[in-house]
Amino acid sequence: MSAPQTGTVVAVSRDDKHRFSKPVVPSISLLAGHGIEGDSHAGPTTQHRYLIRTDPTRANLTQVHLVRSELFAELEDEGFTVSAGQLGENITTAGIDLLALPVGTRLHLGADAVVEVTGMRDPCSMIDKFQQGLKKTLKTTDASGRILRKAGIMGIVVVDGTVAPGDELRVELPAGEHVPLGVV
């Protein structure tokens, strides 16, 4: 893996309502097995509105949404203006290629919190309601026909802690064979 082993938390966001964008806040509290305190996606079972309709008992693999801040500059080059929290992420990072991490990677955030990576976010139609045409930019196809998703990664909280901008982000890769991220 070519990604650096440490990065930084740029911003943190949460919302107690199911809205697309989340307001930036000074800090967030992560609760093991639950997610982000006060966030609409927190809970041991899925809180995503689409997934609740298909299986309300499904384990919540999308407790925490992370997006790399470097994406915002890429989107600006494509004519979009996006900042922290606007893609619905809880944690905006810098210095780590989140999409290159394998399933099971543990992200140590701040002094105590640990999030285990479960997969990629699949951009949905809500993205185009936020900014028309953005979904097509965040979900593209390469020359070989492979779908590329850039809308961040998802994870579950495995260790409680508080996370704030400026906190260090440390990557702990899983033991054994590394499994590429799929959609959760």
Shape: globular
How would you classify the helix and strand content by structural class?
alpha+beta
**Average pLDDT score:** 93
**What is the number of helices?**
4
Describe the overall structure.
It contains four helices and 13 strands. Helix content is 13%, strand content 32%. The protein has a single domain (6-170), classed as Beta Barrel (M1 Pyruvate Kinase, Domain 3). The chain is globular, with a radius of gyration of 15 Å. The protein has a seven-stranded mixed beta barrel with strand order 1-6-5-11-8-7-13. It has helices spanning 49-54, 70-77, 126-130, 134-138, and strands spanning 6-13, 24-25, 28-31, 35-36, 64-68, 91-94, 106-109, 113-120, 139-141, 147-149, 153-159, 161-163, 168-172. By secondary structure, the protein is α+β, with helices and mostly antiparallel strands.
Give a short overview.
Residues 23-172 form the MOSC domain. The protein has 184 residues and is an alpha+beta fold.
Descriptors:
single chain, 184 residues, alpha+beta, M1 Pyruvate Kinase, Domain 3, 7-stranded mixed barrel, 3-stranded antiparallel sheet
Secondary structure elements and their pairing?
Layout (H helix, E strand, L loop, with lengths): L5 E8 L10 E2 L2 E4 L3 E2 L12 H6 L9 E5 L1 H8 L13 E4 L11 E4 L3 E8 L5 H5 L3 H5 E3 L5 E3 L3 E7 L1 E3 L4 E5 L12
Parallel strand pairs: 5-6
Antiparallel strand pairs: 1-2, 1-6, 1-13, 3-4, 3-12, 5-11, 7-8, 7-13, 8-11, 9-10
